[in-house]
Amino acid sequence: MKKVTLNNGVEMPILGFGVYQIPDLAECEASVSQALEVGYRLLDTAAAYENEEAVGKAIENSGVARGELFVTTKLWIQDAGYDGAKRAFQRSLDRLRLDYLDLYLIHQPFGDVYGAWRAMEELYAQGRIKAIGVSNFAPDWLMDLIVHNHVVPAVNQIETHPFHQQMATQKFLQDNHVQIESWGPFAEGRNDIFHNDVLLSLAKKHGKTVAQVILRWLTQRSVVAIPKSVHKERIVENFDVFGFDLSADDMHAIAALDSNQSAFFDHRDPAMVKMLGTTKFNT
C-alpha cells in the first residue's frame, strides 16, 4: 500500500476504509472485518458516527497487529473545548479498545476549537495520539489555527470528489505542509456520478469501474481517500486501484467536471452552522 508522509514524519496509507453512515453496529463490525481481511489498514470513524465500538471489536478480532493499523476518529462540536476534548478522546479510545490513536481530528470548525486543540496538542506530546488534524476547515480557518498554536495540523479531511475537486485548497495545504484527505470521494452518488459519461468512458478505457477510476484519480493527486461500502465485492473493488494509471488526458477530462462547489452544504451558511452546532450525538 502506498503511503503519504505527514508533516511530523508519520506514515499514513493513501487509501483506507470509512464507516460514515453505517449506524448498524453488527453491519459496521462485519464491514470493517471484511476490509481488514482484504488488506485495508487505514480505518476512519468518528464519535458522531456512533459506531466506534463496532470498529474496535472488528480490530480486536482481526488478528492484525496494532502497529500495522492507522486508526482515525474525530471530536464532535459538543465536546470541543479543553476539558471536553480530553474526556471525549478517552471515551473514543475506550470504545475503540485501543491505547493510542494514529490520528485525531476536530470534526467541524465550530465551538471551542482552540481549547480542543490545546488538549490535543498535550495528548500528542504524551504520545497518546500519533498525529492531530482537522476536518472541514476552510483555508482561512486553518491558517488562523496554525498561526495561534504550536502544532501544525497534519491532515485536513475535506469534501473532495470529481464535482468538488479542491484544487486551490490542495495547493494551499501543500504549501503549509498539511495533508489533504477526501471524505465523500463518490459524492455519495450525487449528480448521478456512477453514470457520468466522462467517468464511464474512462472506466471502459481502463477496464475498471467508475469507483475505481475516481479512487485512482484521487490517489494520483496524492489525496488520501476513505471509500465506504457494506458490500464485500465493492470493498474488494475499491482496494484494487493501483494496477493502472490515468494519463494526463484522463486527468484533464476529469478536471473539467469540477463545479468548484459543495455537493452537500455550505459551512458558511449560518443556518447550517446552527444546525451542526446544536446536533447532539452519543459522543
Describe this structure as you would to a colleague.
- This is Aldo/keto reductase.
- Residues 26-258 form the NADP-dependent oxidoreductase domain.
- It holds the Pfam family Aldo_ket_red.
- InterPro entries: AKR (IPR020471), Aldo/ket_reductase_CS (IPR018170), NAD(P)_OxRdtase_dom_sf (IPR036812), NADP_OxRdtase_dom (IPR023210).
- The structure is a single chain.
- By secondary structure, the protein is α/β, with parallel strands linked by helices.
- The protein has a single domain (3-278), classed as Alpha-Beta Barrel (TIM Barrel).
- Helix content is 41%, strand content 13%.
- It has helices at 25-38, 52-62, 82-96, 113-125, 139-147, 167-175, 197-206, 210-220, 232-239, 248-255, 270-278, and strands at 3-5, 11-13, 17-18, 42-44, 70-75, 103-106, 132-135, 155-159, 179-183, 224-225.
- The strands form 2 sheets. It has an 8-stranded parallel beta sheet.
- β7 (132-135), α5 (139-147) and β8 form a beta-alpha-beta unit.
- It is globular and about 55 Å long.
- The mean pLDDT is 97.
Which percent band covers the strand fraction?
5-15%
Query: What is CATH's topology name?
Result: TIM Barrel
Which oligomeric state applies?
Answer: single chain
Q: Quickly count the helices.
A: 11
* Spatial extent as radius of gyration: 18 Å
State the total count of DSSP E strands: 10
